[in-house]
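user: At home tonight, take the chain set out below, taking as long as you need, and be ready to discuss the fold:
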Amino acid sequence: MTRILIADDHAIVRFGLRGILETQPNWEVVAEAADGSEAVAKAIETAPDVAIVDYSLPLLSGIEVTKRIRKRLPGTEVLVFTMHDSERLIQEFLQAGARGNLLKSDAGRDVVEAVQALTTHRPYFTSKISEALLQIFAALSDPEGSSLTARERQVVQLIAEGHSHMEIGKLLNITPRTVETHRAGIMRKLNISSSAALVRYAVRNKLVEP
């Protein structure tokens, strides 16, 4: 039996989610909560397998609820339920211990899949959050944190190899003016002001041989 808690301050949302979830065999909504304090108390009381927690709960935020549930009930997975997703939100709910997120606009379509993932302790993220996580990982993998695009990396490599803007334009099938635009954008991202510094960046990040 999969035991589920729903925490949302709108009764109609809780009703709708319960209706969807309890159509699944061996799934039971064991508790509902209308605010953050009640969500924590009912989670401790019922020890659900999955807690669906609205990000914008009264009294205690969804992030604080997530922290408290994960601290008291490490076996309970938390699915954060949001109106919007953003990089800031990603950082908040991951740090709180949630392993999934779901946009309210997608709930009717995706909530069953999301809960199924969490019941087997697999993460579940919206496509937008997955993309943002990949971008964050790419930035962390880059010592400069520059998040250069593939084309910008090509331009850096060719500049570091000593090619002129005209030569780079021919190699990449773009105009020399576009090359200069890329170069200016790259230097802003990297917070550098000289070609020598750009070459050093390329060497450090193995875009060219030293």
Q: What stands out?
A: The chain has a mean pLDDT of 87. The radius of gyration is 24 Å. The CA atoms of residues 24 and 170 lie 59 Å apart. The chain has two domains: 2-137, 150-204.
